[in-house]
Amino acid sequence: MPITRATFVRTSAILLIAGLLALLAIVGTTIWLVERTQGYFDEVLEARQIRAATVNLRTGLQDAETGQRGYLLTLEENYLAPYDAAVSDILPNYERLAQALASNPAAQEPMRRLREGLVIKIGEMAETIQLARDGRRDAALAIVQTDRGKRIMDESRAFFDQTIEAADERVTAGGAAQRSSSKALEWVSILGGLAIVVVGGGSVWTALAYTRELVEARTEVDTLNLGLEERVKERTQDLVRANEEVQRFAYIVTHDLRAPLVNIMGFTAELDETMKSIQSYVLADGDTLSEQEIQEARTAASEDLPEAIGFIRSSTRKMDGLINAILKISRDGRRPLKPETIDLKALLEANLATVQHQIAEADGTATLDVKVPTLVTDRMSLEQILGNLIDNAVKYRANRPLEINVTARRAPAGQVLIDVSDNGRGIAAKDHERVFDLFRRSGQQDKPGEGIGLAHVRTLVRGLGGDISLSSEHGVGTTFSILLPIDVRTVTRSKET
Q1: Exposed/middle/buried for 418, CB within 10 Å: 0-12, 13-18, 19+?
Q2: Does residue 485 contact residue 466 with C-beta atoms inside 8 Å?
Q3: What is the pTM of this model?
Q4: Contact status, residue 491 vs residue 294, Cβ threshold 8 Å
Q5: Counting Cβ atoms within 10 Å, is residue 413 exposed (0-12), middle (13-18) or buried (19+)?
Q6: N-terminal to C-terminal alpha carbon distance within the chain
Q7: Where are the beta strands (DSSP E) in 360-412?
Q8: Which helix (H) or strand (E) covers residue 340, if one does?
Q9: 429: DSSP letter
Q10: How many CB atoms neighbour CB 51 within 10 A?
Q11: Cα–Cα distance between 486 and 410 in angstroms, integer?
């Protein structure tokens, strides 16, 4: 059945809306799960703080009592050093515990009684030590033998044990809840990734089918009677304009979103492989597993699964950011820069990590040398710039192990120079400037693309107040050099004035 323009627009709109709804569902669910996990984490952290404060207070009180009894028994002054240190920390440790339990109404009355007991105990220990110093050790021992201090210590220990036990229970419950949230997040990522793959595949299929019919229509126009030349010209112009619209649409859908989508697909496949080890462990049904199988299952659960989920979440966030940016551009005509302090090394590591599985497939390596800790610029623009260049390095690799090297260092006049080098196909000298022109490409055209990426990169770089150049030798490799201001706000201020 032929795909009309209206059908194409309607289908594309439906797919785009479906993709946006899927992304919104993924992002919304992810945010909810992250907030829930954060709540559990905060509860565990609070419980650990309560436990630590309780243990410190109990230890200090025991150390003080030990120093007191040692001195009363031996009258050796060296027992008073740990006593003095412990006594000075008892009330501060109590205050820390009281602050940690401030949100628990049920603990206020026991805490009040505990403070009264501590004050009495500290006073008793100080009194007995002073009596012993004055040569009245019998009187000091008589006070100790009243067992008043022992009762206070027993009550305190009971309170400490209850508080520590309650904190341990909260930590255990919080850990279980966090694991449940992580499992839910895993399924959200997998199902969301599948939904995005379906929507992206439908969009590409629609665009290709529509383009194929346009080409067929153009061929039909070319065979028309010479007397219909004027009509052919008009039809051809309409087809060219429609084809350009399709190409722009296909670029927006596939070029910027392709890299994170490929990563989601790759790591979803990796999750599937990882689950095999876990399933063999969980579904053993009493069969004896080898040590290697057990170790593989544990490694999959503790390392492979969290790593893959992290990369899927990172790619999903990147896709969400790109789509939001596209909507913002279409609505406002131009996305305003949002300067923020960026850890350049962390950003580059994240970009390289998203293509690490593709580098590994090419038996390649990626090195990073960053001598600029931070810079202030627009994160979205910088991520797209570096993402495009790194993707190109992987895409246009030569028939040898891939090598990617990214360096960053300071340049004169408050600027930073970022070099992205590879040992790929290289670019002929005559095309060094031409590759930055819109719809212009260099070398053998055996890779998909319309020559938009580098033009888009140069526009983004110039929008940040910088410039981009390249040095390349055909068959050897290419280095793209990006010169950016360390603080983009200095550029925007100068433009405003």
Answers
A1: buried
A2: yes
A3: 0.37
A4: no
A5: exposed
A6: 59
A7: 365-370, 374-378, 403-411
A8: strand 339-343
A9: G
A10: 21
A11: 8
> Residues 153, 172: contact at Cβ < 8 Å?
no
**pLDDT attached to residue 74:** 83
478 pLDDT band (50/70/90 cuts)?
very high
Exposure on the CB side of residue 329, measured as CA atoms within 13 A: 10
Q: Which residues of 18-30 are buried (b: 16+ CB within 10 A; e: fewer)?
A: bbeebbeebbebb
Angle at the Cα of 261 from the Cα atoms of 263 and 193, rounded to 5 degrees: 95
The model's pLDDT over 387-429, given as tens digits with 9 standing for 90+, comes to 989 988 888 888 889 999 999 999 998 899 999 999 988 888 8
* Tokens (6 digits) for 393: 């390095």
253 residue type, one letter? V
Check residue 353 and report its DSSP letter: H
The position carrying tokens 């039909």 is 220
Cα gap 226→230, rounded to integer Å: 9
**Structure tokens given for 474:** 């055909």
- pLDDT tens for each residue of 187-210: 877 887 888 888 778 777 777 776
Percent of the chain with pLDDT over 70: 79
Reported as a pLDDT band with limits 50, 70 and 90, residue 178 is: confident
